[in-house]
Amino acid sequence: MLKVLLVDDEPFILEGLKHLIDWEQEGFEIAGTAANGLEALEFLQKKKADLIIADIKMPQMTGLELLEKIRKESISDACFVVLSGYAEFGFAQQAMQHGCTDYILKPVDREILLKMLNKVMALSSQEKSDIEKNKKMKQAYLARHIISLVQGKFDQLNLEYVREHMECTKGVRYVEIQMEEIFDEEKTSDQEMRVAQRKLYHLCMEYLKEDADLCVFDVSVNEKIYDVCFLYFDRVAKKAGMSEQDYLEHFREYLENNMNQPVIMLVGKKVQDISNIARSYGNTCMLRSFQGFRSKKQIYYYEEEVQVSPDGIVLCKESLDGLLKMIEQNNHVGIRNAVEFFYEEMGKRGICGETMTLNINYLLFQLIHLACEQDDDVNQEKILRLISESSFETGVKRGSKAHLTRFACEYADYLSQLRKNVSRGVLSMVEKEVKENFASNITLKSLSEKYYVNSAYLGQLFRKKYGQSFKDYLNNYRMEQAADYLLHTDKKIAQIAEDVGYRDLDYFVNRFIQVKGCTPAKFRKNMLQN
């Protein structure tokens, strides 16, 4: 409802205006009345009005003087409409020059009043739209500068803009917010992940309210990670009267409850100044890789997961290097023996806790390095994590001897595939497979097994070449075949859905609408008419 202030020194005119129309039905509410300009000023200094309807001639302060004062002193940005008689038409023209929205001649005609209110409503809607559009543009521009800082590719202009448009106090962390279940590319399409990511972003903004600018959408876009960035400053938790841990957990619970699916946070190490935020972002990238070797948590803190103690940490370098050698040689028997030797050495030295973590981290860093030497065009950290997840079995402790053995054997196979350059030609074979068997239940996993390629690596290669997941590529190809059947056969839509690989007709129709913009029936009708 838009708030209206009526200003006139004649009470019967005020009463007449109040009852002339149904204000609420038109989207307006009479917020108050005043007998002259001075009373109107008193009202405006205490309350807000969206529309002021004021008489030109009034004692103490006229409508024209009221208009000039509120515009000159920026007391109110409300639409201003003057009431005038024929003899005062010159005053009305003068009012228009001072930013008056409209004028109405006395006696007030109901239809003219309604027409004026429609005009005010349209102006208000346009103004709100412009404000919202301007706000989004400012947010997007600030986000661009923040992303430059986060990725470490910034100059003084980026830094100064962020400091000028954001309250950058000392002590800041990069926090990556993500949905736990978005990594299964076989079950979830890019579009579905993007929709979920957008919802997560809006929920973050909703929670942060006036601090919504601390939230940035899609910082890790090049890595195909559907994340939301949150720049955590100590002042945010302090303002909420919470500790850092309590604030982040409360924030995460809010997101999870509204998303109806698990939400996790990766919390980078605190840096003193926003100019060093790229270091904290690097920490979260590292945490992403190590997740597969950590106990499942809702919030991962860098300081807890990647600890390095200053007093005599023991690194079992010799046994770890022996394990790395067996992995490089793809010697599964040697890997089992090396893992056994590594755990025996740790047991003899009494290694556990953070020292154990340091040893595992050393191994993972070396494995990523080995893979990058063979192919640094894909996200090797993500592949390491996915291989770790795939080698993990229920009932086996993460990072345990059994988990490490299975992981090392699978990673050894993967490195062997990289050295043989098995990716050469495999994509063309996969493409041929889709063309010949698109109606079958083919998956990336089944194809990776058929062509002896690690599924995580094949998925990354597929994205790199086609710019989309295998599932989306397959679905889009099926849609093209469906469109061809619709044009060149008289088969029923249910039959076409089955012929291109869909057993669920509703899912097929919805997917077709997403790709083609209309239902299969309408597509067939439109194409045949054209």
Question: TL;DR?
Answer:
The chain is α/β, with parallel strands linked by helices and 530 residues long. It has helices at residues 11-20, 37-46, 63-72, 89-97, 110-150, 156-165, 190-208, 234-239, 244-259, 277-290, 302-305, 317-328, 332-349, 353-374, 380-390, 401-419, 426-437, 444-450, 455-466, 470-488, 493-499, 505-516, 520-529, and strands at 2-7, 28-34, 51-55, 79-84, 102-105, 172-179, 215-217, 228-233, 263-267, 299-301. The chain is elongated, with a radius of gyration of 33 Å.
> Proportion of β residues?
5-15%
N- to C-terminal distance: 47 Å
Q: What oligomeric state is this?
A: single chain
Class by alpha and beta content: alpha/beta
Q: Please work out how many helical segments DSSP would assign.
A: 23
List unreliable stretches of 5+ residues.
308-312
Strand order of the largest sheet: 2-1-3-4-5
Shape: elongated
Let me know the number of strands. Answer: 10
On the 0 to 100 scale, the average pLDDT is 85
Largest sheet: 5 strands, parallel
Write down the Rg.
Answer: 33 Å
